[in-house]
Design goal:
single chain, alpha+beta, four-stranded antiparallel sheet, 4 strands
């Protein structure tokens, strides 16, 4: 996914950054999808994500939400720039499961420091 264009540019050291990616897949293919997401988990953590998770929507069969945390905004942008051929191959595997005309919805959130 291309670098985001925020309305208010975060500070370089703002963080953590939570990225969510919403997938709609054929529930019949869930096992194969989860296998690819296990590879995705390893890749994201190897690249420096602080944490990673995959959730399914109990109300909508085949709807999954992937999330991962990057430490800071600048680190998140750096990871987007360092996307390797292996990462592209893995993304294509994920996208092959996704149904619908639009690509998976990607959202980014910045952590609020609450004392």
């Amino acid at each position: 996914s291309a670098a985001p264009t925020p309305i208010v540019e975060p500070q370089a050291d703002d963080g953590p950054v939570m990225v969510t990616v919403e997938y709609l897949i054929d529930p019949v293919r869930a096992d194969d999808f989860i296998e690819v997401m296990e590879q995705t988990r390893r890749a994201r953590l190897r690249q420096g994500a602080l944490s990673w998770g995959l959730f399914r929507d109990p109300a909508v069969p085949g709807r999954y939400l992937e999330y991962f945390l990057d430490e800071t905004w600048v680190e998140h942008l750096r990871l987007l720039e360092r996307f390797t051929a292996a990462d592209v191959g893995l993304r294509e595997k994920r996208l092959a499961f996704h149904l619908g005309a639009e690509p998976p919805r990607v959202q980014r959130f910045i952590g609020e420091a609450i004392d």
